[in-house]
Amino acid sequence: MKDSNRRKFLKLGVLAAAAGLASSPARATLSGVLAPERSLAFYNIHTGENLQTVYWAEGAYIPQALNDINHILRDFRNDETRIMAPELLDLLYRLNTVIDARQPFHIISGYRSPATNAMLAARSQGVAKHSMHLDGMAADIRVPGRELIQVRRAALMLRGGGVGYYPNSDFVHVDVGRTRQWQG
User: Fold this and answer.
1) pLDDT at position 34, please?
2) What is the mean pLDDT of the chain?
3) How far is residue 56's CA from residue 60's CA, in Å, rounded to a whole number?
4) Virtual CA dihedral for 91, 92, 95, 96, nearest 10 degrees?
5) 79-83, 127-131, 180-184: which range is least confident on average?
6) 158 Cβ partners below 8 Å, 6+ apart?
7) Which of 51, 30, 165 lies closest to 98 in space, CA to CA?
8) Mean pLDDT on 78-84
9) CB-side exposure of 79: number of CA atoms within 13 Å?
């Protein structure tokens, strides 16, 4: 066996052993890393649009699927789109795996244009002037069939970035910035 093949084989063996010994959430995260493809499903509560797509397969992101995701996560107020961070999609995929969601993510907010963010910041002190939404690095979500607190706990456990908990508005904010948490 060649050295590079041997290393790959050993690496997969270590990951498989770790997955067998790990807790359920850790196993779900590891299975996400080893999955041959990654898919996500979304429902935009403002536009009524649905999307279910495989966005990563055979070791690469799928450009058309990414375009479709950028569209459904657009600023619904003015139809502006932005390239959403692939790391955010991977975080949502891992979150979906950990909570074993059987329904699409309900999108409250994905990308926000500067004009929309400024308008929301003027209305509420809970909106950051330079929100991660402006950079396509955040989503405000809820998951039908899962308690909001369960979604929050799973997002915190993944340590993929920021997690904001908004029980009065019925959503959890997730982003791929620095790891932090808050309640709104």
Assistant:
1) 65
2) 86
3) 5
4) -150
5) 127-131
6) 29, 91, 94, 95, 98
7) 30
8) 97
9) 0
Q: How far apart are CA 143 and CA 21, in angstroms?
A: 28
Query: Within 13 Å of residue 87, how many CA atoms lie on the same side as its CB?
Result: 15
How far lies 131's CA from each of 21, 110, 112, in Å? 38, 11, 8
The pair of structure tokens assigned to 15 is 């990951």
Q: What SS3 string covers the chain?
A: CCHHHHHHHHHHHHHHHHHHHCCHHHHHHHHHHHCCEEEEEEEECCCCCEEEEEEEECCEECHHHHHHHHHHCCECCCCECCCCCHHHHHHHHHHHHHHCCCCCEEEEECCCCHHHHHHHHHHCCCCCCCCHHHHCCEEEEECCCCCHHHHHHHHHHHCCCEEEEECCCCEEEEECCCCEEEEC
Q: Tokens in use for 142?
A: 């809820």
Residue 160 has pLDDT above 60, yes or no: yes
Q: Which two tokens stand for residue 71?
A: 């569209």
Contact 113, 74 (CB under 8 A): no
- Please compute Rg for the chain using Cα positions: 17
Give the separation between CA 40 and CA 38, rounded to whole angstroms. 7
Question: For position 97, what pLDDT does the model report?
Answer: 97
Mean pLDDT of 17-21: 43
